[in-house]
């Protein structure tokens, strides 16, 4: 799932239920009363060479969708899709096993990504290469635990916020300063070793999901509040959802 800063526009990945149908993206808008409209398929897009959709992010103006896929036969690909025209540009790397997090820079010229849960890179969209590694400058590389997962730009574009296991850190995009810890989250022992989060437009709050509860963290003081996720059918069963704002 990816959310636009207007808090009304969302893009979801999935299927319509037809046999042998490839992955599709669907755009959903919320009405004034908060009710979702019908999902509308993104035009001219069928994802046929992917094992899974690993991450997605909408540009600030909600006109472009970035998404990451694991490729059949190995490797990873980042694609950027113009939602109005269906035009797409791809960057791929056979040596990269997975891209697990994506974030647009506020100016729309760069895209931060997390590779293999070990590396944070910044893809320069102005460069002509289709090789993901060649078009990327690397901000952070980590060996062993803790695992990296989500990444987000601060509103002014000067720094990245990311999760390293259950710790939230901030690092300047030029990588010239050491990361600073913003919050250390306390999760139960059965929680995943990595943390998938979504940052709000102010850069102050992030949201993550554990089990069937959504948690909001204030990055100014580390305080956390939570609410249950209500589901009309089979509440609390199956894999927990991902959430975005």
Keywords:
46% strand, 4-stranded antiparallel beta sheet, 245 residues
Question: What's the short version?
Answer:
This protein has strands spanning 2-3, 9-14, 24-29, 40-41, 50-58, 64-71, 76-82, 88-93, 99-104, 110-115, 119-124, 136-141, 148-153, 159-164, 167-172, 180-184, 197-199, 205-210, 213-218, 224-228. It has 245 residues and is mostly beta strands. A four-stranded antiparallel β-sheet has the order 1-2-3-4, with no helix packed on it. A four-stranded antiparallel β-sheet has the order 5-6-7-8, with no helix packed on it.
Descriptive account of the structure:
This protein is mainly β and 245 residues long. It has strands spanning 2-3, 9-14, 24-29, 40-41, 50-58, 64-71, 76-82, 88-93, 99-104, 110-115, 119-124, 136-141, 148-153, 159-164, 167-172, 180-184, 197-199, 205-210, 213-218, 224-228. It has a 4-stranded antiparallel sheet with strand order 1-2-3-4, with no helix packed on it. Strand 13 (148-153) and strand 14 form a beta hairpin. The protein is globular. It starts with a strand and ends in a 17-residue tail after the last strand.
């Amino acid at each position: 799932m990816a959310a636009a800063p207007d808090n009304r526009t969302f893009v979801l990945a999935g299927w319509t239920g037809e046999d042998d149908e490839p992955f599709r993206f669907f755009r959903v808008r919320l009405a004034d009363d908060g009710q979702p409209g019908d999902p509308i398929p993104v035009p001219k897009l069928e994802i046929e060479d992917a094992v899974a959709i690993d991450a997605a992010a909408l540009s600030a103006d909600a006109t472009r969708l970035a998404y990451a896929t694991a490729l059949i036969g190995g490797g990873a690909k980042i694609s950027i899709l113009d939602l109005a025209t269906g035009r797409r540009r791809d960057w791929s790397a056979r040596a990269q096993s997975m891209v697990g997090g994506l974030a647009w820079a506020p100016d729309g010229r760069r895209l931060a990504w997390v590779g293999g849960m070990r590396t944070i890179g910044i893809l320069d969209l102005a460069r002509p290469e289709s090789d993901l590694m060649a078009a990327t400058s690397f901000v952070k590389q980590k060996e062993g635990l803790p695992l990296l997962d989500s990444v987000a730009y601060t509103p002014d574009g000067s720094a990245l916020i990311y999760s390293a296991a259950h710790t939230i850190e901030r690092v300047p995009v030029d990588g010239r300063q050491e990361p600073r810890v913003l919050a250390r989250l306390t999760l139960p022992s059965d929680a995943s070793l990595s943390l998938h989060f979504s940052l709000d437009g102010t850069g102050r709050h992030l949201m993550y999901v554990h089990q069937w509860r959504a948690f909001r963290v204030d990055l100014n003081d580390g305080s956390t509040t939570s609410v249950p996720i209500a589901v009309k059918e089979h509440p609390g069963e199956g894999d927990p959802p991902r959430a975005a704002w």
